[in-house]
Amino acid sequence: MPSFREGIGLTRNHKTAVELSQEWLKENTKRYAFKKLEREIIQTGACVECGSCVAGCPVDAITGERVESKYVPVLTGKCIACGTCYAMCPRTAILDTDIIGEYSNVWKVRALNDHKRQDGGAVTAILGTMLEKKLIEAAIVVGHSDDNLWLPAAKKVATKDELLTSGGTFYTHAQVIEQMVNCFKENLSNIGVVGTACNIDAIHRLQSHPGSVFNVDSKPPTAFKVSLFCMESFDYKGLAGFLKKESIDIKKVDRFAIAKGEFMVTVDGETKNWPIKDLDYIASSSCAYCTDFTGINSDLSCGNIGSDDGWTTVIVRSKQGEQALKLAVKEGIIEAEKIDDSALQAVINTARSKMNKRYKLKSPH
């Protein structure tokens, strides 16, 4: 390879390279109109004024105009909806791995027994198999607080039977990392942990930090990380108050669920639902800063988006995750089918929606 100085004198044709790049993008980029870039990036104030959308437009339909000294991309020609402007913007997420992280496979999974409080029951089934086969010594899951129903409490379970009593989904933060570390204090070494992306990120930080419990021992402990799809969590007091206004006692709720943009509550066999946006005002303040829907630092990511009712979507990210899934299939605990492209796209679209929420944060200007 020539040095920088040697390269200056080489014959080059960058104009042709730019044209080839535009042609490639036109053929391989998801087709979005300029309006999508305008709506998500320009109008929200996320634009960095770099001009990549103007330079990349293959039909020169975008112009950078000065509006009160600010550089603003404006559509001045006919948009062909090729998606190049959206793809080249540094503020958008385009590649699948930008949005849902690295993965090897995506499955829809169903437990071959009854898990009434979980769609598909995949998480309980896989962790139960790992406990029975001694691949983990305990699992940290979230269950009901001893004092307050639906106030979540992180708990250690060491048997499959204990695990089965902890099924269901909670939509309030729980201190799973504290419980994981308590297990290490008890001299347990191999722990399974179920949590949302923020919990998994905390473990990832510990695993990468040279001074953490994972890196100061010659025989460090391990954590098998299962992330639950999460758009946002709610303040418990706020959630109880919201339900009270709807004449529902939170202590009498049988099941919570979120699906297709709806928040669903089941009481005495009857399910009521509301648009999830109706609960925005009781969302945890920390959720405004989170852009990770699936939990990209996990071994397995699990949720109901992208799968039929009664199934769980499972994103496999690591060798350990693949082995755990295959073991549960081999033992006849679960059945698994490869997810189709349209179902995977549903996961990606939801994840992108969460990622774009960052642009709705209040501007300091």
Overview of the molecule:
This protein is α+β, with helices and mostly antiparallel strands. It is about 35% helix and about 20% strand. The protein folds into 2 domains: about 80 residues, 2-Layer Sandwich (Alpha-Beta Plaits); about 210 residues, no CATH class. The chain has 13 helices and 13 strands. It has an 8-stranded mixed sheet with strand order 5-4-6-7-11-12-3-13, sandwiched between helices. A hairpin with a 7-residue loop joins strand 4 and strand 5. Helix 7 packs across helix 12. The two termini are about 45 Å apart. The model has no long low-confidence stretch (mean pLDDT about 85).
Label this structure with key terms.
33% helix, Alpha-Beta Plaits, eight-stranded mixed β-sheet, 13 strands, 365 residues, three-stranded antiparallel β-sheet
Helical coverage, percent range: 25-40%
Q: What is the CA-CA span between the terminal residues?
A: 47 Å
User: How many DSSP E strands?
Assistant: 13
| Count of spatially separate domains | 2
Q: What spatial form do the alpha-carbon principal axes imply?
A: globular
* Category from helices, strands and their pairing: alpha+beta
- Supply Rg: 24 Å
List the helices and strands in order: HHHHEEHHEHEEHHEHEHEEEEEHEH
Contiguous uncertain segments of 5+ residues: none
Q: How would you write the strand order of the largest sheet?
A: 5-4-6-7-11-12-3-13
Question: What's the number of helices?
Answer: 13
Largest sheet: 8 strands, mixed
**Beta-strand fraction estimate:** 15-25%
Mean pLDDT: 87
